[in-house]
Design goal:
By secondary structure, the protein is α+β, with helices and mostly antiparallel strands. It has one domain: 2,3-Dihydroxybiphenyl 1,2-Dioxygenase, domain 1. The chain is 19% helix and 35% strand. It has 5 helices and 18 strands. The strands form 3 sheets. Strands 2-3-4-1-15-18-17-16 form an 8-stranded mixed sheet. It has an 8-stranded mixed sheet with strand order 6-7-8-5-11-14-13-12. It has a two-stranded antiparallel ribbon with strand order 9-10. α2 crosses α3. The radius of gyration is 18 Å and the shape is globular. GO terms for molecular function: lactoylglutathione lyase activity; metal ion binding. This is VOC family protein.
Length: 285
């Protein structure tokens, strides 16, 4: 997956706030098949390969239910290694009658579902990048019905046992308060390229010619506030940077546009204009 390795900038992991850790563990571990790297009374770190953390779920003190019409997470998207993996996942979710949606985006095929707290998830597989179409430097994406029969045939009758070890976070999609402010932050500050724009309501951005590493929209409304600190949703996500030179350049760019970068335990933290927390993490060799 060359779109998710150096020299690209991509999402590494996310931390989600949930109301009930035990209930969420049943979903993430038992239903989706994540491995547990570490677990305490209030947090669990989840992995697909038993080494690399992808999702941390946390039940903070005084947790609040997911708040409507706020900025933050629309969905976090798990990219499976192969179409056959997605076929097995679809068969599994159908078998257990878990509510889901599905779409064909030309560049990928995707399943959509919510965790028990309403945190949005996309589980998808990319089509080969040679089949993607770019017009005027924008990727061609649509939302067509998924060919479920074809996808299920890819499963070859094999059962879903666990999340494939090659699973990564392919992208993250966010609710923001203002598209122009978000574009300034993500394009001028973080150095992403525009991959597609959908009027004044949504934008898809990437590095290295991917269809999108990050997307953001104002479908919850323009000027909406950030959620409360301890409400269900996205606590933070990390961006993986190829080296310290890139990190230093990004810190300078963020400073120029007036975004604050803080450092703690050798990690840099920033916040987008809509209040979403981001960890800037240099790739480990």
């Amino acid at each position: 997956m060359t779109f998710h390795q150096a020299p690209q900038i991509f999402v590494g992991e996310v931390q989600l706030i949930v109301e009930n850790l035990k209930r969420s563990m049943i979903f993430y571990r038992d239903t989706l098949g994540f491995q547990v790297l570490r677990q305490t009374e209030k947090t669990a770190v989840l992995s697909a390969d038993g080494k690399r953390p992808l999702i941390t779920i946390e039940q903070p003190e005084g947790v609040l239910q997911k708040e409507p019409r706020k900025t933050g997470l629309y969905h976090v998207a798990l990219l499976l290694p192969n179409r056959s993996d997605l076929g097995r996942m679809l068969a599994h979710l159908i078998n257990i009658q878990y509510p889901l949606g599905a779409s064909d985006h030309l560049v990928s095929e995707a399943l959509y579902l919510d965790d028990p707290d309403g945190n949005g998830l996309e589980i998808y597989a990319d089509r080969p990048s040679r089949t993607w179409t770019w017009q005027n430097n924008e990727i061609s994406m649509v939302t067509n019905p998924l060919d479920a029969e074809s996808l299920l045939a890819e499963a070859n009758g094999e059962e879903w046992n666990r999340m494939p070890s090659g699973t990564i976070i392919g992208h993250i999609h966010l609710h923001v308060a203002n598209i122009k402010q978000a574009e300034t932050f993500y394009l001028e500050g973080l150095g992403f390229d525009l991959a597609a724009r959908y009027g004044d309501q949504a934008a898809f951005i990437s590095t290295g010619g991917y269809h999108h590493h990050i997307a953001f929209n104002t479908w919850n409304g323009t000027g909406i506030p950030a959620p409360k600190k301890n409400s269900v949703g996205l606590k933070w996500y990390s961006l993986i940077l190829p080296n310290n030179d890139v990190k230093n350049k990004i810190v300078e760019q963020l400073d120029r546009i007036g975004s604050i970068v803080n450092e703690e335990n050798e990690l840099n933290f920033t916040q987008d204009p809509s209040g979403t927390n981001i960890v800037l993490q240099v790739l480990k060799n």
